[in-house]
Every structure is written in C-alpha cells, then in structure tokens.
Design a protein that fits this description.
The protein is α/β, with parallel strands linked by helices. It contains five helices and five strands. The protein has a five-stranded parallel β-sheet with strand order 2-3-4-1-5, with helices on both faces. α2 links the parallel β3 and β4. The two termini are 23 Å apart.
Length: 148
C-alpha cells in the first residue's frame, strides 16, 4: 500500500521532530536513492545545502521553493515510493489538499498529521523554529489556521 503523509503545523511546532521520531530513515527526496522510502518533500529543501547543512531562506524565492516542492512531490509519487511525506505549515486547507489530490491520482492513501502549535505560544514557537520566523508572523499564521 502506498501512503502519503501530510504534516502540518506552525513553524516550531514539531513537524520535523515528529518525522524523525515516527518515520525512521525518512530522507529528503532530492537526496534519497531511487528505491528509498520514506522520502520527505518540503519547500524548505530548496533553501538547504545538504552538503554543509546550512539553511539560507530567501523570501523573494519562496514561490520558486513551492514550485520545486510540487515538482518533487509529483516525481516522488510517479516513482511509486511506498511512503511520501510532505512537510510544510499548510495553514489553510487548500495548501495541503493539492498534495492529497495528486496522491489520489497515483493510488496513494492519504493521512494528515496536524501538530498545530504543539501547545506553545507564538513567542515560544518563534524561539524554537529553525527558520527564524518571528512571533508576529506566526501570530498571523495562527489567525488564518483552518482545521483539517
């Protein structure tokens, strides 16, 4: 059975930690061997140098990052990986439903894991997220949050 897992939650809520703890061996799709599973698709990977581990976010290139993530998702699904994980905030329903619709076209079952805020305040999320998203941006994202 092929499975797509959609992770959603505010920055710093624990999405990546959940993946590490619950999906052993999960590897970024761009780095995984052809037959490897599970693979992770994320817009964040666009800004990541996998050789040095450096993350260099550029707001002006965010659109490119999301297009690249969509292309990677399609490639991962087309390749028939047994488990694909999409890791993003997915604040609004339409953001993750695109991935779910694509997955259904390729015969995948879909599960959505919603960690929302991990029980943390905006300030705590800002302090612990690895992408330096400030508390005021997280607060705006929280206001737009739609239930799955």
């Amino acid at each position: 059975m092929k499975r797509l897992t959609i992770m959603r939650g505010l920055p710093g809520s624990g999405k990546s930690t959940h993946i590490r703890e619950n999906f052993p061996g999960a590897t970024p799709f761009r780095m995984a061997p052809a037959d490897w599973s599970p693979v992770v698709v994320s817009a964040d990977h666009f800004f990541m140098n996998f050789f040095t581990g450096d993350y260099n976010f550029e707001a002006s290139r965010q659109g490119e990052a999301h297009v690249q993530a969509q292309l990677s998702l399609i490639q991962a699904l087309e390749s028939g990986r047994s488990h694909v994980i999409v890791d993003n905030t997915h604040v609004q329903t339409w953001e993750w439903q695109v991935a779910a619709k694509l997955a259904s076209l390729f015969g995948y079952t879909v599960e959505v894991i919603d960690v929302f805020d991990g029980g943390l305040s905006d300030e705590a999320l800002a302090a612990r997220n690895t992408h330096k998203v400030p508390a005021e941006v997280i607060a705006r994202m929280r206001q737009k949050w739609e239930l799955a």
